[in-house]
Amino acid sequence: MEKKFKRIGVLTSGGDAPGMNSVIKSVTCAALDMGVEVIGILGGYSGLINDRTKKLSESDVSDIISKGGTMLYSDRCDEFKTEEGMQKAIATCKKHNIDGIIAIGGDGTFRGATDLSIRGVPCIGVSGTIDNDITATDITVGFDTAMNTVLKLGDALRDTSESHARCCVIEVMGRNAGYIAIETGMALNAIGVVIQEMPFDKEAMFAKMIRMKEQGQRSFIVIVAEGMGSEFGEALTKEIEEKTGIEARFNRPAHIVRGGIPTLADRCFAARCGYKAVQLLLEGQSDVVICSRHDKIIPVDIKWALIVDRMYKNKLKDGDLDAFTPEEIEKMKALCKERHEYFVEMYEIVNAIGC
Ligand code: ADP
User: Looking at 99, 115, 131, 144, which residue is catalytic?
Assistant: First the structure.
């Protein structure tokens, strides 16, 4: 028999992202509209373990849609990975009559959601990460805002680079994923984009810079993904000066990119994901993450999502695929191919037109 939900919990966990508040708003208002109470859990899974909660009303969330960060705060909590921590979290759910949880975060957060789901607390994940590094979804909440922040910074750096005839190397966040780098590189007319996913022809970039300088070009932008390692960007900056004679400066916007006012795209995506998450949770679904595939909002089994991630990153372990049918494995492979083809296409364009 379908379980009747009276009260659900919502939390944000792991690295924060602009748009998390927009998801909280959507979840809260959708649930209340469906006649279900909402408990905000403060500080991610650590708030669940330590019983830090706050009942949410529509007015609590009415003005947060346009704010970066997360009104529920975020945290990393190793204790949640232990059975003892998990039992404390379950006890908090029982104490407050929380029938299910919507967990907003990245892949670590979804692992936690699976652990809770299999212990009888239904959970649904919603992405909240600027990195866009969840293979199962085309986009994640926070990604668009982060890119627009890099765009604003890059445009400003272009202005000063033009005045002083400089090259600006910008290292952008994204963990091991090059999504922010490749898209902002395209939008900023970068002469070079360096990401883990594709080989980088340094000498070709130097040669193009020299050629453009001879044509009278004064400013250059190079984007480096965080995944290249902490030393890479600065070393490349020095090498640009040595090899091209163009003065170069290194910039690391770092956490600035994680804050700020969520864009329209992020707010709308967050709203759709939050609403769908509540709908599915109340319908009895659990252990799924809300994804966007070709602009459709769909639930994806969390285990499937985590394994396809590993497949894409070439990190599959023995036995990872045992639980999946050949058709499901084919679907995973097709998705990995789609993601790879995206990078091939984007990289080809950036390298051809960036100057
Ligand atoms: P993100 O969700 O952004 O990927 P983390 O990887 O730091 O961030 O994960 C966020 C939190 O999710 C962790 O601090 C922990 O509480 C929980 N978590 C991560 N991995 C697991 C796991 N394997 N089992 C249970 N909980 C986990």
Answer: 131
